[in-house]
Amino acid sequence: MDVIEYVPTRDQYTYTFGGAAPMMRVRPGSVLRIWSDDAFGGALRTVDDLSSAKVDLRFVNPQSGPFYVEGAEPGDTLVLHLVALEPARDWGASAAIPFFGGMTGTDRTVTLQEPLPDTTWIYELERERGTVTFAARHSEHRVELPVDPMLGTVGVAPAGGEVRSSLVPERFGGNTDTPEMRAGATAFLGVNVEGAMFSIGDGHYRQGEGEACGTAVEGAMTTTLIVELVKGGAPAWPRIEDDTHLMSIGSSRPMEDSWRIANADLVGWVADLSGLHVMDAYQLLSQVTLAPIANVVDANYSVVVKAATALLPTVAPYDGIHAELRARARSLGSL
Amino acid sequence: MDVIEYVPTRDQYTYTFGGAAPMMRVRPGSVLRIWSDDAFGGALRTVDDLSSAKVDLRFVNPQSGPFYVEGAEPGDTLVLHLVALEPARDWGASAAIPFFGGMTGTDRTVTLQEPLPDTTWIYELERERGTVTFAARHSEHRVELPVDPMLGTVGVAPAGGEVRSSLVPERFGGNTDTPEMRAGATAFLGVNVEGAMFSIGDGHYRQGEGEACGTAVEGAMTTTLIVELVKGGAPAWPRIEDDTHLMSIGSSRPMEDSWRIANADLVGWVADLSGLHVMDAYQLLSQVTLAPIANVVDANYSVVVKAATALLPTVAPYDGIHAELRARARSLGSL
Amino acid sequence: MDVIEYVPTRDQYTYTFGGAAPMMRVRPGSVLRIWSDDAFGGALRTVDDLSSAKVDLRFVNPQSGPFYVEGAEPGDTLVLHLVALEPARDWGASAAIPFFGGMTGTDRTVTLQEPLPDTTWIYELERERGTVTFAARHSEHRVELPVDPMLGTVGVAPAGGEVRSSLVPERFGGNTDTPEMRAGATAFLGVNVEGAMFSIGDGHYRQGEGEACGTAVEGAMTTTLIVELVKGGAPAWPRIEDDTHLMSIGSSRPMEDSWRIANADLVGWVADLSGLHVMDAYQLLSQVTLAPIANVVDANYSVVVKAATALLPTVAPYDGIHAELRARARSLGSL
Amino acid sequence: MDVIEYVPTRDQYTYTFGGAAPMMRVRPGSVLRIWSDDAFGGALRTVDDLSSAKVDLRFVNPQSGPFYVEGAEPGDTLVLHLVALEPARDWGASAAIPFFGGMTGTDRTVTLQEPLPDTTWIYELERERGTVTFAARHSEHRVELPVDPMLGTVGVAPAGGEVRSSLVPERFGGNTDTPEMRAGATAFLGVNVEGAMFSIGDGHYRQGEGEACGTAVEGAMTTTLIVELVKGGAPAWPRIEDDTHLMSIGSSRPMEDSWRIANADLVGWVADLSGLHVMDAYQLLSQVTLAPIANVVDANYSVVVKAATALLPTVAPYDGIHAELRARARSLGSL
């Protein structure tokens, strides 16, 4: 199977979901190998590169894309199977951006206090050992942390003609910033416009749940993914299936609403797939779900609600496409 | 070592943290084996026992205790190491209580809509197989789920002379409803009054994160725990250490505030223990924490933020008391 | 009619709703003239008295009371008609307490930022002109503001055996901090315990809606009020009637929940009084209510929803007791 | 002075802020007389027109515009002085749209409950008496309510290339749904794109604060306004000045964040205008602001914080343009 390479030039970076012309047309079934820059557009390369000087929050998370998926129409389900995520640089960067993040007043949770000290951390990648190294900046400490690559942003064009910043997680996916968006996962996104117009970016070499300081170990990434299309069946909110779990992602404010969205979507999904009455699905999931917070720092907060497939009635979401894609991905192994 | 048995009579049940006379005085170092009734006081025994008829939300989560810990003074740290949690009945119960839970309007998130159908589910315990069986009520399905016993409520008397319902999670612990409160965990609670006055209850044979429908697999429980006391060092919010993680629990509303509380507490705890500058602790934890939601249904919502000890600087919280208690617990093995 | 004077000694101050023995027993129909200290217990008397040194947030809003109302039983409605509020000192105080207030991180909305500068402002009362004078502390400006006396806290003992700090607004009233609690208003509170056990305090010589910095022009107050009792009819949340409006007060978090509580209570109240279908009451009130925020700074946030009686169907809440109390109050004019 | 009339055809309606080509170019100083359709695009004309059949929430609040203001550049301040708002039909409509509004679960605050009954109310306008008549639908009652015309949406194109639905209130204005947006008010909006690209719509013949049921007395409107431009000085959030008050409008979630935004903006505005230290502005405003909720039903919740100019240091925002526009508006009286 052919693999389509996509490496954008800097002037091809896009900073919105919706509102940009397609960079490429792809057919369902295509395998793409996409390079994406880091959240800062590569602007933070040493600890002396401060975000207050080099980062404009209106233009972060540069997207690679959008890609026009042939045949995709509103109401369809875009399926993106993440085959592999490979760090594309030998270092990642993180920053405590003034008035951005979870432990500071922000432009929404406004206070009159002074900002936290603007600080940049650089994480060296040890490719063979599969680690990135944290090096303290205001004290002394170094520690290697396992690499666990993920994509902070995976999204399609929004509904209703909206165009949203790539800093936003919403119904259309976007900047959900969940570690669940890793290799082996199949993402399902409702299509809102012809061609779906998906894009990806904001690679993280690793991230804690919540993304507390507002930024992960941000790094350029090479992502291999398979694009598929299911006619109809558009989920209202992003969903993920991996080998062990079904997941729904809610993104809103306050955070209990993010959870409500994700939990209700998962209840409805399981009820639809299994024939369980919605009250029974509600009860069963109450006893088996995990509910990891994804981010508490973006324009909306994101929460994942997930259930182990082994504890559910036998279900095959979207006709079992995840298992089929896993098999297809394995056949790419020799790439 | 002697084990002190405590089985309350029904008139010894308490429904508050604070405000009750001590049921027993115990010395630090004591091993207690405590029976606690389920959240409903045993009122839901068949699927025909409906919560609207049999449950008064002002009097749920009957507590076993309070216990007066000798020598405990305000500012001290109460240490409770959970040795074993054993289901004390052969069934657990769960219910969709009208206007209570995460997928319905409540007395706070008030709507004018009709309630969801009042439904009770009974889970038979298969003790040998270590499972409870979900049986659908409005449709057809049965599935065995692994037992994972935990305590929904572990708390002390509040500060400032307050008395709080056993439905409330707060600084003093209480109804945090996190699956992390399981055997093998050591809980740390700040002491607010002489004797600490701790109590436990609300056993769950298992619970999903979020406790979505408002109730877990509620069951009477026999809990074996070791009581210890550290002079001073009172944490502002409940903390847990187990063999792999340090955890802080925040309980407030909206849920982002619960997370902020827990995350800030963990950042401060790690900074204090390790000597890391708080900005470095903030950064390091941003990349390594897990952030599972505990409950979205109680008087306050609870969030756990946890970090793998293996990824932190070498630390020994409270002089390494967790490891020491684990050893002591093992020596009780022949009980 | 006799007027009962009550001036507590300092050791008679109470700091909770519930949990205190009654200071006095009063009969329905009684007129009380109650002195209450300011929120700081008089600790801030000059601009050099800083809250960080002199205020313990566990012991603010000293209450005058509790008063045991003869005949009051759970489910009854306590009626308190505020006849007159007179500043009892010649100055009020306000403070930006560190990590307390609406424009700073707090113990709930935790950040890692430094606190705002701890500052105290003293407002001189010009009794004849009916003003208090703001005098800037970090810059130069003075301006006289009209006095508009109100009570920050009016409450009864909570349900379920709870005891709550006098910093808390809740179902039982308490620290709602609304300027609507002024002379001429009749407050309705559901009775939870025998004797109702009401108390008042936290006088404000004036306050903006929201109480943004966390404190109003805090001042000792002499309050004249008439106590009445309606058997049954306990409202779930505090209500107020004045000569022009019906009001409900919701106190919770997040603030939309406070609004939901107040709005639903007012819809239900009007529907009950008028016979309007709840959907029609919902619609009519949607077009006529005012919704002033009361406080965004306390343990719960408070919102008032109010409707002009003139735009409602003819209603006489609690058998027209407000009009009757207004008449009775006028007859006290010669006091 | 010439008055420019603008009456869009239906195919000229726009449903977004940003993303639409300008309908007209206007010079600063222009007087416009703009017709706008109601929120439903005129689809609800009798009580038998139900929103579930006739309203698509992706396409409500049709905008008249956008208007390109000559000379407007990013960072400038667009000034819109509302001279007159005249109901353009003889009736208004309101509806309880399923899963939309403040007293129901929504697409964000998701519950599993059934929707409220889909109901439409038609309000006849009595032009001479200046009233609209509420007529109950599920019970019997009629009452005339005073007309108080306002615009639910006044906005410009967003920053960062975003395009937002006309259902959204945000930094760019939009669907703030505050009764303060009435004749006599001067609105200030930060310009984000060349030409500002402002539009208006969503006229309300009257609305309660909070817009509880999700819709006001929605009506087609003829709005006379003067367009002005101040170079530079762009406020971060919408501001209003009228003859008595300065106001800031915050729109976010949860609602305390909306308040924080508005309050911080007003504190900063007053500090900038007056030279007061920000802590003194914070204190003074704490004692004088009003804080009416605007809406609790839109994509973001909106809160107005306002201060009486008479209680502030002498200030002349934007060089006193409001007073000058009032004078200009009076000179139009003979229109």
UniProtKB/TrEMBL annotation, chains A, B, C, D:
Name of the protein this chain belongs to: Acetamidase/formamidase family protein
Pfam families the UniProt entry points to: FmdA_AmdA
PANTHER family: FORMAMIDASE C869.04-RELATED
